[in-house]
Amino acid sequence: MLRTALLNPYKLSKTLIQNTRLASKTSPWKISQTHLNIHSSAISLHPRSRKGGGAGDESSGGSSSGNNQDDGNGSDGGNKNYPPPPPMFATSKHPETSSFNALAQINVPENYPTVPVIPLYRNPVFPKFVKLVEISNQWLMDLLRKNQKLAQPYAGAFLRKDESDSDVIKSLDEIYHTGTFVQITEMHDTGDKIRMIINGHRRISVTGVASIENESESDPAEDLFDKSEFVTTSEKDEGFVEEEICKKHENEAEMNGSEAVSEEKPILMVNVENVVDEKYQQDQELKAASAEVIKTIRDIIAMNPLYKESLSQLIEAGKRVVDNPTHLADFGAALTSADAAQLQEVLEEIEIPKRLMLTLELLKKELAIIMLQQRLGKEVEEKVNKMQRKYLLQEQLKIIKKELGLEKEDKDTVIEKFRSRLEPLTVPEKVNEVIEEEINKLSFLDNHSSEFSVTRNYLDWLTSLPWGLNSEDLLDLKRAREILDEDHYGLDDIKNRVLEFIAVGMLSKNIRGKILCFTGPPGVGKTSIGKSIARSLNREYFRFSVGGMTDVAEIKGHRRTYVGAMPGKIIQCLKKTKTENPLILIDEVDKIGRGHQGDPSSALLELLDPEQNVNFLDHYLDVPVDLSKVLFICTANTQETIPGPLRDRMEMINVSGYVEDEKIGIAKQYLIPQAQQNAGMDDQMIDLSEDSVLNLIKMYCRESGVRNLQKHIEKIFRKGALKYVMNENEKVFVTPDNLKDFVGNPVFNAEKMYDNTPPGVSVGLAWTSMGGSTLFIETAIVAKSQENKDDGSRGRLETTGQLGDVMKESCRIAYTFSKSFLLQQDCSNDFFDNNSVHLHVPEGATPKDGPSAGSTIITAFLSLAMNQPIKQHLAMTGEVSLTGKILPVGGIKEKLIAARRSGMKTVLLPEGNRKDYNDLQDFIKNGLDVRFMNDYNDVFREAFQS
Description:
Elements: H1 2-7, H2 9-26, H3 33-44, E1 65-66, E2 69-70, E3 97-98, E4 106-107, E5 114-120, E6 130-135, H4 138-149, E7 154-159, E8 178-189, E9 194-209, H5 212-216, H6 243-255, E10 269-274, H7 284-303, H8 308-316, H9 319-323, H10 325-335, H11 340-348, H12 352-404, H13 410-422, H14 429-443, H15 450-464, H16 477-487, H17 492-508, E11 515-519, H18 526-537, E12 541-545, H19 553-556, H20 569-577, E13 583-587, H21 600-607, E14 616-617, E15 624-625, E16 631-636, H22 644-648, E17 651-654, H23 660-678, E18 686-688, H24 690-699, H25 707-726, E19 732-734, H26 740-743, E20 761-768, E21 771-782, H27 786-791, E22 797-800, H28 805-825, H29 831-834, E23 836-840, H30 854-866, E24 874-876, E25 879-880, E26 886-887, H31 892-901, E27 906-910, H32 914-918, H33 922-925, E28 929-933, H34 936-943
Parallel strand pairs: 5-7, 11-16, 11-17, 12-13, 13-16, 18-19, 22-23, 24-27, 27-28
Antiparallel strand pairs: 1-2, 3-4, 5-10, 6-9, 7-8, 8-9, 9-10, 14-15, 20-21, 21-23, 25-26
Helix pairs in contact: 2-3, 7-10, 7-12, 10-12, 11-12, 13-15, 14-15, 16-17, 16-18, 23-24, 23-25, 28-30
Keywords: ATP-binding, DNA-binding, Hydrolase, Mitochondrion, Nucleotide-binding, Protease, Serine protease, Transit peptide
Protein name: Lon protease homolog, mitochondrial
GO molecular function: ATP binding; ATP hydrolysis activity; ATP-dependent peptidase activity; sequence-specific DNA binding; serine-type endopeptidase activity; single-stranded DNA binding
C-alpha cells in the first residue's frame, strides 16, 4: 500500500486518512509517528511542495504546506512516545518551529488564513507559552476532532470580552480581535468535553467569519495537492467531509424528536491575518527598560518560589529571549496575575517599546502585591511562632518543676486547693460527705474530660461558700441611730424597726434573720436605706432586683448538668459576701414576672419563709444551705401586686412620701451639699435661697419622692457653674424670679381648679404610688331632647373621665343613695326624677379607680340637686355604703399632704382612720382642721352648714 501511495498522490492521501482512522481506533486523539513519517516522506516527493521533508531533512518527518495551509504536521507520537506537557516557555532553534521532547519537529506554517476559534477567559495565551484549555461546545469539538484526524492541529485563541466561561461564540463582538495562533500539542477527549494543551506561536488578528460550508465540499487531499493536477472525489469520500458534522447534529435532533435546531450555529472558523510588530531600534532607552524588566522578574522570582521553574526555562533558552524585547515583554506579562484587560492590552500592542513599558508596569504592581503578601505572611508566621514558643516553654517549665518536685500535677494541685479552703470552715456533715465524694471522683477523672471540668466547678462553688463564717453584729443603738440619721432624713418607721431589731439582739444574744418589706412611692429612699441599715449593723450588703424576672433559675440556680450552669443569686451572694449573715436587699418585688421558665415569686416563698430557709436547697449545689441568719429586706411601690402568700411572709413597713418641709430639710442637709461638691463650687460662688428651693418643690417637683428634686438641684448647680465661669468668677444668685433661667418653665400649675367651688362640684382626695393629689368631682344636668320629654323617661346617670370598674360602682351607689337622701331632706325635690346627670372627673387621660371617692360623689350630686355650693376650702375622702356608712380608706398621710399643698383648710376623714391620723407627725397636721365622720349625715352637716 505504501508503494502505491508513493506512485499515486491521491491514493496516498486516501491511504493516509485510512491509516489515521485505524490509528484513532486505538488512540482516537493521537496520530502515530509512523503515519506522520509516511505522510511527510510522501509529500516531499511532490513537485509543488514548498518545503521538502525527505530523507535529507533534519527532522524525522518533514512538512509541506499547500495553499497556505498546513496539512498533517501537528500530531503527536503514539502511546509510547506521548510527550509530557510542554514547558511554560517553548523555545526552538527556528522562530517558526516548536520543538518538544519526544516530538517530531514540525514546521509551523507562516500563513494560516482560516482557523477554528478557541475562546479564552481570565487571561490570554502569549506566543511561546502554553495553556491548558477545556471546551464543551459540541460544534467546536467535532471540528477539532476532524482537524486532528486531518493532522491540522492549529487554531486561533482569542480572549472573551466578558467574564463568561462559555466557549460558544455567536458574534465576533464577544471576543477581542487580536489573539494568538496556537498549536494543539495534546488532546484528551472524554466525550462531553475536550481538554487540550495549546502552544502559542504568533499574534493574529480576526478579519472576518469563515464559512464552514465551503470547506465541507473540498477533499482533504486538495490541501496536499493542487486542484489542477488531481481530481477530487470528496463527494464520494465518506470519511472526512465536514458535512458529517452537520449530519451528526441533524441525526441527533431527529433521534431526540425535535423538529429542527432552533439555535443559531455558533462561530467556529474565522479568517485571520498575522500581526506584524513595528520595527524598533535597540537604543539605550529600550535597553534600560529591558534591564529593568529583567531585574523586576528576578525580584519576583526571588520572593516567590513558584516562578523558579519559569526562571530555569528562561535560562535554558539562553540569552536570546533575554536580549529579545519582544519575547521579554511577553514573558514578563505572562508571569503576572494582572486583569484580563491589561494582559490583552499587552497582547494587542505592536510597538515594542510601549509593550515593554506596559509589561514593566504590570511587573511592578505584581512585585508590590508579592511584597505585601510576604509582609503579611511574615507577621502571621512570627505571631504563630511566638505562641508556639511560649507554649513549648510553658510545657518545659512544667516538666522541670515536676522533676524538681516544685509543682505537682494539675489534678493534685486542684484537690489540694479545695482542701485548703475547707480548713478554716465549719462544714456541715452532709455537705462534707458530698465534698469528699466529689474529690474522690475528681481524682479518677482525666484532666481533659468534660466531666472533670463539671466536677471541678461544682467543688469550686461548694468550697467557696462561707460555711460557719459570720460577721459580728455591732449592737449599739446610739451608733446605729447616728448612721441612719446621717444618711437619710425622716423614715422614722424604718429606723425604729431597725433599733428594735438591735434591742432584741442585745437582750436575747441570739439574732435571727428577719424579712422586712418597705412599700412606698418612688424616690423616698427605700433602696438606699438598706445599705445604711447594713452599715449600722456591721453586716455585708448585697442587692439584686427581681423586677421583670421570669426565670426561676435566677433564684434557685440551674441544674448542674446544663452547659454554663451556675447557682442562683442567693448562693452567689454568700460567695461574694463571705458571711452567712449578710443583709440581702431584694428590690422591686411587686414587679416580678412570670414566664414559661417558671414563677420566681413562688421560688421566693421558700427563700423568705423563716421555717424553710434553714435548709434552702439550690438546684445547682443540691445540698441544704442555712439562710436563717440572713436579714432580708424587700422593696415595693404597692402591696396590691405582691402575691398574697409572699406578702404574708413579710413584715410590711409603709414608707410615705415627703411633704414640703421634709423635702426642704432633705435638700438642705443632703442634696444641695452633694450637688455643690460635684459641681466644684462653694458658698462663695453660688447662693441658692430657701424660697427658690420651696418654689422648686411646689412648681417643679411635686411628686412624693426627692429623686426629681435631686436632678433639678444638680441642674441648677451645673448652670450656675457655667455662668460663674463665663462671668469671670462673679457670684451667682438663684432666686424665685430667675429660677426659670436655670430649670425652665414650671411644670405644675396651681392644683386648685376653683377659687370658689360652684354648685355641683366637690373636692376629694386621691392616693397613688406617686403620692397624694386632690380630685375634683364635677356634675351637670343633661338637657332633655324633645323625644325624651314626650316619652316621659326618668333621669339617668352618665360618667366620664376614664373611671375604673370600682369607681363606676361607687358612682351608681352614690347616685342611688343621693336620691333617697334628698327625699329625706326635702320630699318636694324631684330633681333626680326629672333630670339626667353627667358626672365627670377631670384629667381624663389619667386612669382613676377605687372606692374612696364615695362621699365626694354624693356631695356633688346633692350640691347640684339643691343648687347649693359646698363649703369653700373643704376636701373629703371616704367610702360610702348603700346605707350611708363612711368606711375607712388608705393613704391618709399622702392625702393630707395633697390637701395642704392645694390650700385646703378643712378635711373630712372616716372615723376608722383616726388611728392613722394620730400616727402622723405634727408638721403634717399643722394648718388643717381634720374632722372624722361616721355616716353621711355628718358629712352633709359639714359640707352644707348653711
